Amino acid sequence: MSRRPPEPPFREPPQRERRAPQDGKAVDPERLYVITGGTDGADRATLDLVTLIVARADPPRSATPEQVAVLRMCHTPLSTAEISAYLSLPFSVVTVLLGELLAAELVQARAPVIRGATADRSLLEAVMHGLQKL
Fold it and tell me: CB of 44 within 8 A of CB of 96?
């Protein structure tokens, strides 16, 4: 009778290396690919970090979980940077996602409200008079 060498212990297959962003959460490239539908977003809408997004409709049944999340959180205007942070997704992925929602007319993009460079004179006078009365 010959003796067989002992079998090596069962080992888990090696995990794919995932890049960790600065906040310590792992980024799964396959998940990002699925969210964007494999598109690079070359034809996506030009959105910047401060563009405000507002939902125009409730999520349809065919919407992905990420699209549903965007539509639910954007009942009040949110910037694209805030959406990216809340979803823990890179900005480039969020712009592709928002581009799809804009094309389907489920959201509306608005320019941010920019305050005037100089303060309104009547407001400053009202504040000054109020302070003088104290």
Answer: yes
Q: What is the largest CA-CA distance in the chain?
A: 107
The gap from C-alpha 39 to its chain's centroid, in whole angstroms, comes to 16
Phi and psi torsions of 38, nearest 5°: 80, 5
One-letter amino acid of 108 = Q
pLDDT at 89: 84
Whole-number Å distance between alpha carbons of 88 and 66: 11
The verdict on pTM exceeding 0.90 is: no
Confidence tier at 83 by pLDDT (50, 70, 90):
very high
**For the chain, what is the mean pLDDT?**
75
Q: Is the dihedral of CA 104, 45, 74, 97 positive or negative?
A: positive
Give me the DSSP letters along 4-73: PPPPPPP-PPPPPP-B--TTS--B-HHHHHHHHTT---TT-----TT-EEEE-SPPPTT--HHHHHHHHH
